[in-house]
Amino acid sequence: MARNALYMGPRLKRVRRDLGLTQANMAADLDISPSYVALMERNQRPVTAELLLRLARTYHVDIGALAEDGGEELAARLGAVLREPIFADIDLPALDVADIATSYPGFAEALLRLHTAYGEERLELAQRRETGAGEGAAGPSLSNPVAEARTFLAARRNCFPRLDDSAAAVAEGMPGQGQGQDALVRRFEERHGLRVLFVEPDLILGAQRFHDLHRRQLMISKRLDHPSRRFQLALQLALLEADGEIGRLVSEGAFTSDNARRMARRALAGYWAAALLMPYRPFLRAARQTRYDVEALSREFGVSFEQAAHRLTTLQRAGEEGVPFFFIRLDAAGNVSKRLDGAGFPFARHGGACPLWTVHSVFQTPGRIVTQRLELPDGERFFSIARTVSAGGGAWGAPVMSRAVALACAEEHMGLLVYGDGAAAMAPTPIGIACHLCHRPRCLARAAPPLGRDLRSDDYRDTGIPFAFAGD
């Protein structure tokens, strides 16, 4: 390379086109030949320091911006894509990737756009598989109100400041900031003329809560534990005092069925109830002080572990953000019953199926929090905690349901969590979103082949790897 020279062909071409010039026009302005302009744009000739100054003076272009490489960010994005396991059998040295980003930025950007479209399509196909939508179906959302409600919440990062403000205003007008059960009961009596009774579930046909409009009373199952009683009281208050605001928010959603609207309304009522029991600013302050210790938060606010973990996913109010978390709840069979995303995670919509994530193994250690570092196929890393929770019970012979819940955040936030102390020494576990979306070639836990890969014939060699890939 020539001394005091710079190869910047794609940037030079972009400048010329932005100015609406032909190669001949630029050559005349710079007092060089059109062929030399063409050679520089193909990186076959350098742009000397003298010529760079002439460019800046002639076209009033900032010389720093003109000389800036600009390929580092593009190279990093391209490199992240090419590190995915689907490209593992292709030799792609980092230097070549950097050369492509620098010399052919248009091609690199085209590849990135294609990869984004590919990712969206395979996620759509995965959702069709999960929901049973066959070919020719208009889309999974038409037959899956749960998916529509989850999409509604995820698009808003599971954060609704108007509901937080509404619930906080009610909490401030109640003794003890709305934390005590007695304060909630008085609210019903004084504001709504409702008598609150804690009764045997048989009297309300096995329900947890029943609002008897005729007798002006609210009956709550006495079999519920204290946090569950308080949540049922707060949930009924949400339906009485925040129904208008909840309705306005639901009307903003693009729902295709009444069932989807009902699911979203129920989720927002639960959101308001949690915001009443755990007001946004006090809860965020306590979360930071305890370093996001879920058990400590549940005791401080008189809620369950799951309720506190759930509330942590909602702390994304602009200017008052907490650590962005993703929450998932599933049963021992792997059925996901709740997903909440306050972080925009890639596996928020379909993740949870990978058996290598400890959320599946915590059933072996009930009640104990298990931490884990996670790495997705694209190299993105997360940190998670998982624990079992239970529902039901309250009397001998009453059915009990055990589930596992997990909170996950980007690894960059790990140091803010009390659970992250010493976790840096743990090796990250390679997991995938789902087997048919994961292209890791040597995963012993694989239960299905990935989309877009041919399987290798095992006529002469069996490696013991389920669904081994061709070429591996």
UniProtKB/TrEMBL annotation:
Signal sequence coordinates: none
Pfam entry (one): Peptidase_M78
Alphabetical list of InterPro entries matching this protein: Cro/C1-type_HTH, HTH_RamB, IrrE_HExxH, Lambda_DNA-bd_dom_sf, ScfR_C, TransReg_Diox_bact_type
UniProt cross-references to CDD domains, sorted A to Z: HTH_XRE
Entry keyword Secreted: no
Keywords in alphabetical order: DNA-binding, Transcription, Transcription regulation
Ranges of residues in domain HTH cro/C1-type: 12-66
Family: Belongs to the short-chain fatty acyl-CoA assimilation regulator (ScfR) family.
Name of the protein in question: HTH cro/C1-type domain-containing protein
Organism annotation: Sphingobium lignivorans
Taxonomic placement: Bacteria, Pseudomonadati, Pseudomonadota, Alphaproteobacteria, Sphingomonadales
